[in-house]
TrEMBL record:
Pfam families: Rer1. This is Protein RER1. Belongs to the RER1 family. The keyword Cell division does not apply. The chain crosses the membrane at residues 43-61, 67-85, 150-167. It is a multi-pass membrane protein. Involved in the retrieval of endoplasmic reticulum membrane proteins from the early Golgi compartment. Keywords: Membrane, Transmembrane, Transmembrane helix.
Length: 208
């Protein structure tokens, strides 16, 4: 009797260990795929656009799941705002300089030191969240209990109104603190061969 109990215990333990190893291996493959896709920005966004296109086509063809579409749009809008916002908001930065020209420590002239724009939501996390949420939204369209009857023009008006108000507030924030959510004028240094051929010196930098 004791042998049977020990055998069943060992069998269940080995089975649980096998499932755990399977999911661990699956997570490793998933993380490895994400790591390999990191430098391929354009291809990643093409894939995200393709998934979003499938979602929109399914909404358009079957004329339903407007609540899912509205929720996804609101979530994408929040992600986009976080993508445009600096990591340290100058409005709440205790180390910001208190002078007449309030604003974040970002370059505004070509002769200033180059400092990249650091986002609250990095580009890769922005892409990953957009792709995941769109895939979840597409998955939800295969279940009828997510297809709540609603007058969709009202949702469109709500979304357009919310988009305009949110973007207006964000643009005012950008104007007030004088920053752009994109890195520009990064210095590029010439190669030694170009210098030998009569090009500008190594210390001379040309902006994009």
């Amino acid at each position: 009797m004791m042998n049977e109990d020990s055998a069943s215990t060992s069998t269940s333990t080995s089975g649980g260990g096998g499932v755990k190893k399977f999911f661990l291996r699956l997570s490793q493959i998933y993380q490895s795929s994400l790591d390999r896709s990191t430098p391929h920005t354009r291809m990643r966004w093409v894939f995200a656009g393709f998934v979003l296109l499938l979602f929109v086509l399914r909404i358009f063809i079957y004329q339903g799941w407007y609540i899912v579409c509205y929720a996804l749009g609101i979530y994408h809008l929040n992600l986009f705002i976080a993508f445009l916002t600096p990591k340290i908001d100058p409005e709440f930065d205790p180390y910001a300089q208190e002078d007449d020209d309030e604003g974040p420590n970002l370059p505004r002239h070509s002769n200033e030191e180059f400092r990249p724009f650091i986002r609250r939501l990095p580009e890769f996390k922005f892409w990953l969240s957009v792709t995941k949420s769109t895939a979840i939204g597409l998955f939800c369209t295969f279940f009828d209990f997510f297809n709540v009857p609603v007058f969709w023009p009202i949702l469109v008006m709500y979304f357009i109104t919310l988009f305009c108000i949110t973007m207006k507030r964000q643009i005012k924030h950008m104007i007030k603190y004088k920053y752009l959510p994109f890195t520009r004028n990064k210095p590029r240094y010439q190669r030694v061969s170009q210098v030998a051929g009569g090009g500008p010196s190594i210390g001379g930098a040309s902006s994009k």
